[in-house]
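ok here's the first one, seq then struct tokens
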Amino acid sequence: MQVPMYIAAQLMGSILASGTLALMFKITKEAYFGTLPVESHLQSFAIEIVISFLLMFVISGVSTDNRAIGELAGLAVGMTIMLNVFVAGPISGASMNPARSIGPAIVKHVYKGLWIYIVGPLIGTIAGAFCYNLIRFTDKPLREITKTSSFLPSASKN
């Protein structure tokens, strides 16, 4: 029951935010705030799969693995998003989240290539989570592997 409610909340938030932007600003076709493929649909589809895979792989590593260093989780996720936007932004808009593309498309009635931003991130995130779980080779906590409980105290001693 939580997953459908989460999806509904994401979609409603995206639609409401897009509607607010559309009311506040005069949005022309050139200033469309949604995501559109720049080159071919296949190229945008492939890059959306790759960047969604990378994002989910990092999120799985820093948030679900008890061996990860929790103090740096936000930095790792944020840097992954920044890298994804720098690399894929000029190609596909770097959506990485279907709701981020569906909201503006519904509000402004621009549906060109919308399937890319729904199917690509779904494939990428499922593959990212699957691959991370596949390569987890031990259930030992990070403390036992590295003999420290945190990265930050050991870094400040040096």
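and now the second one, same deal
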Amino acid sequence: MAELTLFATMVCPMPFALRKKMFHFLSENPIVAKVQYGLKITFIFVAVLFVDAVQRMVRIAQEGAAAKAKPDMVDARTETNYAARRFYAQRNLYLTGATLFLSLLLARVFYIVLDFIHVQENYTTLQTKVAKQSGASGENEELRKQIKELEAQLKVSQGKDRDFETLKKQAGQQNAEYNRLADEHNKATGSVSNKKAD
């Protein structure tokens, strides 16, 4: 009954914070660890009793088969005694078997719920990290936009510098062409200027 009560307590719905406190207490408390150690020893004795109950069941079943083979030895007291012994052996088998089964079930459910609590804690910490990073990523996104704007302004200013350099080259080429044409015109007309060309 204690195992059934403990199992019902472990699997009943409760708030996560309460379940977390309860399972951390059960898994980390040294007094609970000593109680668990004592229970393990008790379950070893229960396992021995289970094996004994199985052997008694087999022996009583063999005696019943032998009694049915000899129909001349039927007595009401013998039959009642046989039925009582069989009932006690079956009762002991069911009680010890159920106790062992519930102990294994309790241990497994306890560790499953404990793993679930650890996974839930990790999930919440990851969610908080993601939330912090998303806030930082929003700032990063704003900074990226500013960088793109500055790069665009830099390209525009570099484009203006290139335009100025291109304009300067064109002016130089036009000046050289003008001087060449002026020299040809002067040769053709025969007029020579007193100024020296730059």
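notes on #2: The helical segments are 2-11, 16-28, 30-69, 76-189. The mean pLDDT is 81.
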